[in-house]
Design goal:
The chain has about 450 residues and is an alpha/beta fold. It has three domains: about 180 residues, FAD/NAD(P)-binding domain (3-Layer(bba) Sandwich); about 130 residues, FAD/NAD(P)-binding domain; about 110 residues, Enolase-like, domain 1 (2-Layer Sandwich), CATH 3.30.390. About 25% of the residues lie in helices and about 25% in strands. The strands form seven sheets. It has a five-stranded parallel β-sheet, with helices on one face. A five-stranded parallel β-sheet has the order 9-16-10-11-12. The chain has a five-stranded antiparallel β-sheet with strand order 21-22-25-24-23, sandwiched between helices. Strand 1, helix 1 and strand 2 form a beta-alpha-beta unit. The relative contact order is 0.12.
Amino acid sequence: MKTVIIGTNHAGIAAANTLLDNYPDQEIVMIDRNSNLSYLGCGTALWVGRQIDGYEGLFYTNEEEFIHKGARIHMETAVDKIDFNGKKVYATDRDGKEIVEDYDKLILATGSRPIIPNIPGKDLEGLHFLKLFQEGQEVDKDLSRPEVETVAVIGAGYIGVEIAEAARRRGKNVLLFDAESTSLASYYDEEFAKLMDKNLEDNGIELHFGELATAYEGDKRVERLVTDKGSYDVDMVINAIGFTANAALGADDLETFRNGAYLVDNHQQTSNPDVYAVGDCATIYSNALQDTTYIALASNAVRSGIVAGHNIGGTVVDAIGVQGSNGISIFGLDLVSTGLSVKAADKFGIEVLSTEFEDLQKPAFIKENNEMVKIKIVYEKGSRRIVGAQLASRQDMSGTIHMFSLAIQEKLTIDKLKLLDIFFLPHFNQPYNYITVAALKAE
């Protein structure tokens, strides 16, 4: 059986490895328009902000590894069209040569693409996006120019906040803009997001929330950012508004979700039984919502690639859904979340209650490495099942969110959590654990 995989980042790589490592009867062909594969884009800000020595470690595999396993791989090759009836992929390589690959099964792993604001001045120099490795290189190069003193970052989601920190660490004046009233509004309720807002301000980042960019101005290169509330002199702009599914190749032939992503079942199969879609170009099932949705995360992409690979290989594997677990660490403040915030639940029409608590991670007599931890648990009012959790601290408590992810997946109720067996030792935690206390405080 011959499987063609279009796209060789996290989802495509996971699918290819699953097939190559487990199903020797598979002929695998991989196609990607980029010159590199496996780039961990979530590490761009660490590299640009000089928190790590370089970008080399952000690549976890390479073309040669797949060739060694027996795959054929076409890099710097753009797919022009797909004949879904004739089961052929038509592409053009970097030398202009046409490549035609037939297939038994096709995996679309084309990922996502940045949302580009269609406003005046969008073609000026000094405007950047952050998705590919090459875009990270351009941002790093521009930040190295001494004449770049003030940087505007548009979008205060994860990527925007991270690259704002990176630019500040490089000694730049940083202005952070978002149409929402806080940073990280898609992931956290206001009381958690405002902890990050204060953290950003305390570290010298100028916040402009509730502002919408309306134009870029300048002579050849951007010199000003204009919003609905003012005009700001800037030397560089980084757009981090968000991403949408990169699903143009099959948009006319495959069933799609409301945002254009390929609609898939729990085997990652599209409306065409010989075509699978994985990663950011496809939908995913949310256990918190108990419905199909779209969540673009690298961790979700890897899992979807594994599921598609096994099903194509002949082993039936059902996706178990996701919670959208995520985290961020900025200037020493860590926030993690999973499932739905109260704000998100309201948006989707789910009636919820919440409970929260704040305390030291360890007993007060532990003086070193002991920080406050803030926790919020969101649960459905009727069923009382846990649908979300958020934590914030300057101590690493990130592992806690994995338990809440499993709780959402298994439909655990807030009441089951109240007497959960949580061990106590002063080196690690308190006898009245903040998880237990928060659960006990639930109505």
